[in-house]
Every structure is written in C-alpha cells, then in structure tokens.
Molybdenum-dependent oxidoreductase-like protein (Blastococcus colisei), 744 residues
Amino acid sequence: MAADVAPVALAPAGRARVADPGEGVGLDELALATRNHGMPLEALRYDVTPPGLHYVLTHFDIPAADPASWELRIGGAVDRPLTLRLDDLMRRPAVTTRVLLECAGNGRARLEPRPVSQPWLLEAVGTAEWTGTPLAPLLEEAGLSPAAVDVVFTGADHGVERGVEQDYARGLPLAEAVRPEALLVWAMNGQPLPPQHGAPLRLLIPGWYGMAHVKWLTRIDVLTEPFTGYQNATAYRLKVDADESGEPVTRIRPRALLAPPGWPDFMTRERFVRAGAVPLSGRAWSGRAPVTRVEVSTDGGRSWDDAVLAPADADHPFAWRAWTYAWTATPGPHEVLVRATDEQGTQPVEQEWNRQGMANNLVQRVPVTVLD
Amino acid sequence: MAADVAPVALAPAGRARVADPGEGVGLDELALATRNHGMPLEALRYDVTPPGLHYVLTHFDIPAADPASWELRIGGAVDRPLTLRLDDLMRRPAVTTRVLLECAGNGRARLEPRPVSQPWLLEAVGTAEWTGTPLAPLLEEAGLSPAAVDVVFTGADHGVERGVEQDYARGLPLAEAVRPEALLVWAMNGQPLPPQHGAPLRLLIPGWYGMAHVKWLTRIDVLTEPFTGYQNATAYRLKVDADESGEPVTRIRPRALLAPPGWPDFMTRERFVRAGAVPLSGRAWSGRAPVTRVEVSTDGGRSWDDAVLAPADADHPFAWRAWTYAWTATPGPHEVLVRATDEQGTQPVEQEWNRQGMANNLVQRVPVTVLD
C-alpha cells in the first residue's frame, strides 16, 4: 500500500483516549490483551526466554510471509539501491547476540488514569538470542548520501491506527542505524524467526524499546530529513497534554522485576510463601546505560536493601542481568518492591504519568502473604 | 503438597463471580489475559499452529522442570505401581498425531453477564502435532483393578483456587483414559514440549476441552470411585445457579472461526476490505462428533450460505478442518458470521449462558467495513 519513502500521513490522526476514573478494561483493550501476550513472570528464571514465552506486540495482523520469495529493498538517499533476498542476507557475516526487548507500553495498565491501548501490566519483556547480519555494511554498500539524517524501516504489516492507514514504519536517527549492534535478523534462539516475531526478517536495534525493532521488514529507506510518519510523530511520544508534540520514545529505561515467589492464587495472582528463608530472584536491565544497583524492599517501600546483582556480561551488554536477595520472611502480609538503578538514575516509586502510557518504569509492587 | 490419591478438598471453595452489568474487565482478569495468551486469529491460516501462537492457559505458575530427573508415578488401584522416567517413556512405541485443543472457557468474555475468570474472547484454540506414547498399555502393565472407575492425572503446578490449595489434578472416566488416542506426550511440532505446554510430559486426550490434557504430569492414580477433586467437582461444571452441582465439562462442542479478512484497526480490531471478490476462510472443529457443515452469513445472520468444507482427514480426526467461502463484497458495513454443525447439532446464534462461562460455542460475529 505504501508507494513512497514516507508512506504515512499525519492527519487526521485521532487522539489516544484516557480511561475515566474507575473505568474497567474495555473489550477493545481486552482484544489486544488476548492476542498479544506477555511473558509470565516466572519465565524470569530463564537466561534466554523461549520464543512462546517472549512477549509479543503486533499493531496489525501477523503477515503471511514466504521466506523463499521475500525481498528487502534498500533505497531512498543512496547511490545504489539494493534488492536483497533472504538467501543473500544469510550469506553475509552472521552475528548472534543476546538482547532484551521491552514494549514501550509495558506498565501502561498500572497508570492512573489509564491510557487506553494495549493494556500491559508488567510482562511485556523477554530476552532472546538473535542471529542476523550487521546493517551498517549494507548501508555502506548502497552508498549512503552525505545528507542522510534518518533511516526508515517498513514492515509488511498493514492496518489503520487512529484513522491513519499505514504500513508499520519507524524512522531511526542515522547514528543509531549504523551502530555495529544494529542487525537484520532471521533467527531467534537458533531457530528461524517465528511468524509473530517478524519472520522472515526483522530489525534488531539493541537498547531501544520494542517499537523500533521493525518486524516483517520489507524496506529500508534513507531520508535526508527527519521521518514524520505516524509511529514516530504521533504514536511513540512522551507527552502529558494531547496538544503537545512531546518527546520521542527511544531507549529502554531501567527496570527490575521479581520472579514471583511461592505459589499463586489463580484469580488474584496473589503470592503465598511459608515463613523462613525465601530466596527472591529476578532480572534487571536498562537500554540506555549500564545497571549499577538493584534494591529490594519487603515492607512496602519503607526500607530498601541491596540485592546481589550478577556481574555484567561483556559479551551481552544488552541482555538482562540476574539478581538475588535472601529474604527471611515473617508471617503476615508483606509487599515486596524491587528497583533498578543505572548510570543515569533510579526507577521511580511514584508514577510519572504520560497520556500514551509510554516508557513508564514505575517500580513493581508484589503483595505476598507469608504463612506460618 | 499432595500426598494422597485425591489431593484436593472440596470445601471451602468460594463461588465464581459474575460481573455486574456494564462492568469492565478488572485488573485480576487482565492479569490472566496478559499472562495466558490466545491464538491471533490470522493464525487460522496454519494447518499446524506454531507453538508460540497456540493458546496457553495455566491455572498457576509454569513449573521449573528438569527433564533428566522427571518421574511419573502410576499408582492407586493397580497391582504393580510404576515409576517411570522420561527416557523410559521415550523408549516405548511413539505416535504423532494432529490434535486441536480449545480452552473450555473460550468465548467467556463475550457472555452477558460476564463470568469473571480468564477473559477469553474467541482465540483460545490451536492445533499441534503431538508426539507421545499410548497410555492404555501402561495402565495394563500396572495391572488395573477390575473395580477401576476414574483415572486421576496430577501436574506439578500448584496454587490456590477459590480458597482451595491444590496441585492441578483432573479425573477422567476409565473408558476415556484407555482410548487408544490417549497419549503421554513429550513433543510438540517435532520439538521438546515448551515449558508453557507442559514440559517435559503432559496428557493428550483428543476431543476433550483443554483442562483435561493435564500438563507437567507427575502422577496417574487409578480410583475405584469417581474423583471429587476441585477441578472436576467445582471448576469445570456447566451450571446456571451457584448452588447446583451442574454437569461436567467434557468434549469440545462444534465451532467455526473466520480468519480475519482484509486489514484491522489497531484499537478496535475492526476489519476493512475492498469491494469485490473477498475470499473468506477459516477452520471448523468438534471434539464430540464429526463436523458435517459450515455456513457463512454476510448479513448479520439473516441469511446463511454453505461454505466449502475441506474433506475429513482420516489420519487426523481430531484436527481442525479448513473451510472457504467466496464472498462478493458490496460497499458498506457488514457483519460476517460463521457456524459449524456436527452430527449432534449446530452452534447457537443466541448465547446459552452458564455462570462459569464453560463450553460456550456461540457463533462468532465479525464486523467488516467494505470500502469502495
């Protein structure tokens, strides 16, 4: 449907809705919640998330792709436009890297008031081993214009969002697109990409929220001016008022999550443990700077204690890191909190609200009933 | 936690809640919706659902299982209790079979009033190739008591449901457990079972709703009286009043679903197509009797027309079947319905309400806007 470099019109984009006070989740949000899926937090136990447990967000439908006939076109402000088939790409130097992805909307449904969109609680994360070929040498071969500013990645997924019909497309600043970590990826955990993760080809841009890792990638277009498509200019913005243009959503902010201890109640997901030694564990990450500290509170945030953070893995700077904490649990109700700090700051304990529910890294609160 | 053959107490089970009129989905239901996941309906295109797209429902947490040390115990009313490791089972005769699974709660969130539990719309389905060994010869080797009535399957998943702490356990009538199609399964689509599908071992009892296919299987106990555990006596019952005991949920009722045509709106999932020839397609199934007919309505149910139903596959009687329908779409709003008929009856067009939202096979309604 998209014939041009910038396939997306800005107007007449509707505004995102914010739920009324006390308003329950609607059938529209539920339809998103049941088709997209989060990572059940007990899967924090895996260094590498199995594909079916890794979070998935698809804006439109999962395209039906034939790897044998798939083509990627590289064009726009380049000297030599390229058309590449999957085989062409797989003959190039391959890199496998362990990278955490998190949806920019993670935590949205915990905000008050609640921005109406995909209603994530805290489970829109996962870490996988991705295999692909670096993007920068391909852009070099195509002959980047010295005037290049943005690189636009377009997927085969097509639909309407707030009145705008579009192929999903995201622009990246050139400096990000030519980072050595930016890959065109065809495998996940040693297997061909599953359909829902972008088969047969997606972008991987470590450190960025998930919206930037364009799936079902069909086109890469170099622009000499900033991309103004819907997903950059409208959707993924940090703004409080509907009328402001807001700041773009970019790198992943620090977060730590707790693997749920003990056993759950089916309906409330409340946790139960027995009194005594309760080892707590989980993962922490940041896409913008190295994680330096993880702290745990078992008294609802009144006091904090340092967790033991696993050493950074120099080979996988964009993976999550394990943390552990030895809790001696006393009978009664408790609320466990965990927060990460990176070189730029600490997760907030009070919400920093924005009207599209983006890049919200409010600390997790886990009610735990300790039994005698 | 479960030391006896019947590990589950009936009292003091709380009652299932029914939502008030107009009440939105709560954070408790949302927590279930974001951790469990449905099959995005465009995946109806696949004969065999990739594992990460197959629906998943876990009552409690996904257990951490070590296949190397996993043991299955077969006991109760048998002459020779058995303890089997995964290797022992994998040396036995193996069968691979294509079987549809559907959650008994599929469609629950479309009921009015809405039973409060996992809020499925219509996506709690999937068809996979399962590999395992038949159960009946194992029961024979163990020496079934002539007085055997039920066979109870217990998983490693543990939690609390309506006040009852339990290992997940389901009883099956003996006649079902010794059907040649009943398998102990260790592989899905040619790969080891993923964690969320029961690794390393689950039951497969083709034709039954998902709750019967016990995952993370650790024990099989033969009873000489009917099993009265929570998941049989309380949870999976068809009842209208809270005080009646109700009928047990057993085999899958007939259903047909439409693969969504055209393209979606992100938020509403409304469909758009261009006027003219619009091929419609989807799948139909029943676990209780062969499907005999699929019908499509493109006018909201006022008129129905036969779809073309793919021939039954004698090798895979419990898989879904493809159907197709050639629609000539005229501009304007339409509502597409599809319904399946099996040898026992047709899907209802009006809801047949029950208070736990079980085995509800109300027809699907898909609003489609046809553009000029």
About this structure: Chain B touches chain A through 59 residues (CB under 8 Å).
